[in-house]
Amino acid sequence: MASRPRALPSPLPLFLLLAAVGLGVSSCRGLRPDLGPERTLEAGVPEAFGSTAPKAPAITWDFGDGTPPRTAPGASHAWATAGRYTVRALDGEKELARVVLTVVPRPVLRAVPQDAQTVLWVPRLRGNVEGLVDFYERLVGAGNARRTLEETPLAPLLLRSLSAGPSEVDPEEGFGFFLLPDFDGVVALLGVTDSKAALAAVARELRSAGHQVLPREDGSARVDPVDGGRSMLLFADRGYVYLAVPDSPDAPEPGETVKALAVEESPDVERVRRRVEALSGPGISENALLGELRGKVRDGSVFLFSAPPVPEAEKEDMPVRGFFGALAVQADQAELDGFLSSSRPLLGSTRGPASALLGRAAAGPVAAAQLSVPPEELARLVFGSPESPRRQRTLERWRKQGLDAEPLLKALRGDVAMLVYFDAAAFFQGFIRDQRPSPKGTVVMEAGLTSVQPVLQLIQKQLQDNALVFQKEAQGNTTRFRTRLMEQPVSLTLTPERATMEAGEVLTGRETGDVGATLRTRFGAEAFGPGHLSLMVDMGRLRADLAGVREVPGVSTGKLLASQVFVTALLEQLTPFEYGFLDFSPADGGGRLQGRVVLRER
């Protein structure tokens, strides 16, 4: 009988066996990880790839930035600097998947908690810091600037990055300071490319300054100040290094040493760290008020945003919502542009009057100031709103001093101005005679009046209370007081329209005219006009006055010329400051602040 053919084995068990053997040889063969689409990330912020499942196969990850590959089922990685990087998932030499990522600098405001009340920042170091440091060094002197900057948190590391060579600082990211509502102190932050190396560099700088730095296992460090004070905290988070600096403690009680206070660690610094590490999303960068105000201000090198909360009881007196300002530095000048946002019109709905003094003054002041505010708004600024507790307390305090402040404020028209003149001839006369410099010149102040009697009473009381010897002259509607303060003659003149004070040398030989118009032409923005609070200091005018003296009574031409050369050289060595001005005026939705500082040409 013929035998039956043997049945062929099923191919399925054999396939499973071969597959199992294959997986044992290479757990990734045939696996294609999903790395997601091409996308944009921020430098310093970790991105996760792969799987976290317990039995997921291991994969070799090449992040494309020169760092060593890692083999694990999943990996998290942060790119230190901006650029385009190709991330590859590898099985040995075989590429399983890839994705191209664009890494951009992490904006400094995204590293600041969203509830920060005040932030001062440089958005990008490269192209901004060099000009700021150069301008500051010229303004105050290189030595003074360096000493100040070296004492500023994180600034030494930033300054070292300006020199040639590798640095832990990221020039494409930012630097700044911020205040938090529940932290009594300031927090500094700086964008870096290597957080570990940057922390070590800052620790070295702090130790070299005499501070005690105590590293922790998590990479942060406690810093005890050399001269007393609460402990600081140094830490890093997502591409930024932070230094939380608490306010110094109050003066010690008798028998208590400052050093004893220094070793107490402030719990506030840990609160700062928790706040930073819990930060997600845009931080303060998308604050609605910041965005609103930023559109009202020109661009700059360094910015300031402040929106501290105002207690409900004080909102009537302080309707300010917030402030945004930008400082632009170009060569030998710095321009300030800012906007103060308000929930109601600032300084009243009507403008204060322009100063009458500025319209008929002697030419050539070296400094000028004007306050043009409606009287009730001035009272609100000084004392608070009508019937407010602050106004009542202030008025009561004045009454105890024998002054009735309400009638005094109502007597003011709303314009106050001051002009300062330099008398170069009198200066050289005293300098040559006494062999030492002594300021000489004249200060003129004037306030418009609606009623003279309250001001007259105040002046008489102040002269009597200070035991000053004075002469009083009255003629018609004019009353004049003459006395001396700090060896300088002082004259106070009252008329029904204005109160005028002149102190110092007698102004002679100067042309008179509309000084306010001259200042507005020079500084623009309607500075020194109605409704404006304006200030100007002009060192260039002072230099011109010194150089313009041709003769001094009782002084030979040779001595005068030698003194001029010496004083001019000394002044140029002391400061390159040429002139500066600041102007604030009400605007729709608040008020605009503008300013300028100009240095002498190199």
Instruction: Name the shape in a single word.
Output: elongated
Let me know the largest β-sheet.
20 strands, antiparallel
Mean pLDDT: 86
Total of DSSP H or I helical runs spanning 4+ residues: 16
Report the span from N to C terminus.
120 Å
Find the count of extended strands (DSSP E, 2+ residues).
Answer: 29
Rg computed from alpha carbons, rounded to a whole number of angstroms: 35 Å
Q: What kind of assembly state do the chains in view correspond to? A: single chain
**Protein structure class:** alpha+beta
Total number of domains: 3
The percent of residues in helical segments reads: 25-40%
Strand content: 25-35%
List low-pLDDT spans. 1-29, 258-263
Domain PKD: 50-88
InterPro entries: Ig-like_fold, PKD_dom, PKD_dom_sf
Organism: Corallococcus carmarthensis
Protein name: PKD domain-containing protein
Please outline the helices and strands:
Layout: H1 11-25, E1 39-42, E2 47-50, E3 59-62, E4 70-72, E5 74-77, E6 83-91, E7 94-104, E8 118-122, H2 129-140, H3 142-150, H4 155-161, E9 175-179, E10 185-191, H5 195-208, E11 212-215, E12 221-224, E13 232-237, E14 240-246, H6 258-262, H7 267-277, H8 288-294, E15 302-306, E16 320-330, E17 333-342, E18 361-362, E19 367-372, H9 375-383, H10 389-400, H11 405-410, E20 412-422, H12 424-434, E21 441-449, H13 453-465, E22 471-475, E23 478-485, E24 488-494, E25 498-504, E26 512-513, H14 515-523, E27 533-538, H15 539-548, H16 557-574, E28 577-587, E29 590-599
Parallel strand pairs: 1-7
Antiparallel strand pairs: 2-5, 3-4, 3-6, 6-7, 8-9, 8-15, 9-10, 10-14, 11-12, 12-13, 13-14, 15-16, 16-17, 17-29, 18-26, 19-20, 19-27, 20-21, 21-25, 22-23, 23-24, 24-25, 27-28, 28-29
Helix pairs in contact: 2-3
Domain PKD: 50-88
Pfam families: PKD
InterPro entries: Ig-like_fold, PKD_dom, PKD_dom_sf
